[in-house]
Amino acid sequence: MTVTADVLLAGIVLLGSSVQWLTGMGFALVTVPALILLLGPAQGVALANCAAGAICLVGLAGGWRLVRPRAMVPLCAAAACTVPAGTWVTHRLPQPWLLLVMGGLVTAAVLLVMRGARVAALRRTRGAVFAGAAGGFMNSAAGVGGPPFSLYAVNAGWTVREFVPNAMFYGVIVNTFSVASNGVPGLRGVQWGLVIGAMGVGGLVGRGLASRIPERRARLLVLLLALTGGITAVGKGLWGL
To answer: N or C: which end of the chain has fewer CB within 10 A?
Structure first.
């Protein structure tokens, strides 16, 4: 990678970290389309898994007492079962098709979250298993396992106070499985330093903006950025066919 690409990498991670700490969501949604265009699908997803997992682990430190084990066990168990399938897809499809699949998954997930879709199947234990399975596959294939979890939480009637720590816990578990399946991205030492530094700066920026930007407006901005990235990935995939 050139110096310009290294700077772009740091900027992408900084933006994703900022929106994650600003809204409690969005790192993967915002960064994955850009990371797969910059690093390639496999490396981009692997980096998103590592970074998102680390951010969720730090964010969970202050709210682990609010985690709901009864709901999280079927979610995480189902995700663990489908992570290998997502990895298989990532390593078997040609790059244009991967861009199409990943961009399509991101775009569809964002649109569903924006609608706040109500689905009877996403309730109780059956809904947790379905959401976990979808999230595990999407996380290892496209780096975006959060939207199925968000839809489950909406249909389960969770409050924001309940949602955030449980989403962080789910993010730690599903990204741990995804990193174990996808591996660690092959970045140079300098690039790892830039990524870690960008995550730290992004956290400070996000926390600083959290008190100044209304949560609803910030979440809408995240979703619009993610939608733009997803559509861009689809377009590049179509162009490469």
So the answer is: C
DSSP assigned state of 62:
T
At residue 41, the 3 state secondary structure works out as: helix
Q: Are 34 and 177 in contact (CB under 8 A)?
A: no
Instruction: For residue 167, give the nearest of 33, 53, 83, 32 by alpha carbon.
Output: 53
Q: Do the Cβ atoms of 179 and 46 come closer than 8 Å?
A: yes
Tokens of 197: 């530094």
CA 17/CA 26 separation, integer angstroms: 8
Residue 143 Rama label (left phi>0; alpha psi -120 to 50; beta): left
CB of 50 closer than 8 Å to CB of 179: yes
Q: List the structure tokens of 60.
A: 């969970």
Q: Which of 125, 129, 96, 131 is nearest to 112 (CA)?
A: 131
Torsion over CA: 216, 161, 177, 16 (sign): positive
pLDDT mean by block of 10 residues, the chain; 241 residues: 83 88 75 85 88 87 79 91 89 78 76 68 76 87 79 76 81 91 88 92 83 72 71 77 70
* Separation between Cα atoms, residue 34 and residue 90, nearest integer Å: 16
What residue type is 240 in one-letter code?
G
What pTM value is reported for the model?
Answer: 0.81
**From CA 233, how far away is CA 148, in angstroms rounded?**
20
Q: Closest Cα to residue 100, out of 241, 230, 234?
A: 234
